[in-house]
Design brief:
With about 160 residues, the chain is mostly helical. The protein has helices at about 1-15, 55-70, 80-85, 90-105, 110-115, 120-140, 150-160; strands at about 20-25, 35, 40-45. A hairpin with a 5-residue loop joins strand 2 and strand 3.
């Protein structure tokens, strides 16, 4: 019940910024749990029957962070990021642009958490920030996202660090 209310507040928060939010079935073999359109018009959260409400909330906060960074940048996308997103190759400088975009988006997560009166343990948000940035840092450095085994190990480390 509380998570449903938080999710509804986040959806209304997005709508208040002019973003439509859709929940769609997860696409197999996709890395995306959610996506934000670079024109700032829509967020899609991909769900499965196993996706928890908290995971949906965290995915939505993640994408809202991208939107808030976009708005603060006068609704423009960094040319380096746009090039990286359009590129077919996987160059280090392109991966770094993607990583830096992720870093800039996470700066808004705590504000979104507070603005929408989320009630879940804030350490879970900090843990998710650390995990997301770690995943993108691995991608930036290696050109590949961490595999499942590496993610599980990192999640255990973060669970010990944050106690949740």
């Amino acid at each position: 019940m509380i998570r449903d209310e938080e999710l509804n507040r986040l959806v209304r928060y997005a709508q208040g910024m002019g973003i439509s939010v859709r929940f769609k079935p997860y696409v197999k073999r996709s890395l995306d749990q959610a996506a934000w359109t670079i024109d700032g018009s829509e967020i899609t959260v991909y769900v499965t029957e196993r996706t928890s409400k908290l995971e949906n909330i965290l995915s939505l906060i993640h994408e809202l962070g991208h939107h808030k960074a976009f708005v603060d940048n006068d609704r423009t996308i960094c040319p380096k990021l746009e090039e990286a997103l359009d590129a077919d190759d996987n160059k280090k400088r392109q991966r770094k642009a993607i990583y830096l975009d992720e870093v800039s988006g996470t700066k808004y997560w705590l504000d979104i958490y507070r603005d929408t009166n989320c009630q879940f343990n804030i350490d879970k948000l900090h843990k998710q920030i650390d995990f997301d940035l770690w995943c993108y840092k691995v991608y930036c450095d290696t050109g590949k996202f961490p595999v499942k085994k590496e993610k599980i190990k990192k999640k255990r480390q973060l669970k010990e660090k944050y106690g949740c």
